[in-house]
Amino acid sequence: MKVIVGLGNPGLKYALTRHNIGFWVVDRLSEEWGIPVGKEKWKAQVGEGRVGTEKVVLLKPETYMNRSGQSVRPALDWLKCDLEDLLVIYDDLDLPPGKIRLRLKGSAGGHRGVQSIIDHLGTADFKRIKIGIGRPDSPVPVTDYVLSRFNEEEDEPIADAVQRAVDAAKAWIDRPFEEVMNEFNRNRESRIGPPGEDG
Questions:
Q1: Annotation-wise, does 145 bind a ligand?
Q2: Which is catalytic among the residues 19, 99, 111, 128?
Q3: Residue 19 appears among annotated catalytic residues
Q4: Which end of the chain offers a freer environment for a tag, N or C, measured as fewer CB atoms within 10 Å?
Q5: Nearest to 21 by CA among 194, 179, 136, 162
Q6: pTM (two decimals)
Q7: Residue ranges of the domains in the chain?
Q8: 130-176: per-residue pLDDT in tens?
Q9: Angle of helix 152-172 relative to helix 177-184, nearest 10 degrees?
Q10: Is 14 annotated as a binding residue?
Q11: Is 90 annotated as a binding residue?
């Protein structure tokens, strides 16, 4: 079994905002795999199906971002899913738009949705796909920035990043995550902003 969680906020008000990019990836996976995400379970929108011989559960918490762990923990408990089979997909301020980064584990890095999951699971040892949304050029509060929409210059790199995140998640279904991580982390250049390490 694989459980893939995309983080975001529920409702049309937030649907196209930077903070909801994790939802976008799950929606795309839902389309490509033919696994509808619409059941109400574990305070989330859920889709369950099979990809090849693997059972896959797609999860979009509806607790609002900062309480994501209130959905993820009961889902894993009910499904009796091992942490090694959990993948969380979310936005990252420290990556430029157009860049993704896969990680086996790590801190929340200031992301409150991820921190909520860490708090409820009691560990930070779960796989992630982080999608860059960049930081504001002007002194805009982070809260306002993550709830804003992408600008026209960012649309193409973001669409590309979402598709690569989808491709990485699909690759993980039948390949070791470390192998997928090495492949998708290889491209360290961004289509927006200067190249550089992101931690």
A1: no
A2: 19
A3: yes
A4: C
A5: 162
A6: 0.90
A7: 2-184
A8: 999 988 887 888 888 889 898 888 999 999 999 999 999 999 999 99
A9: 150
A10: yes
A11: no
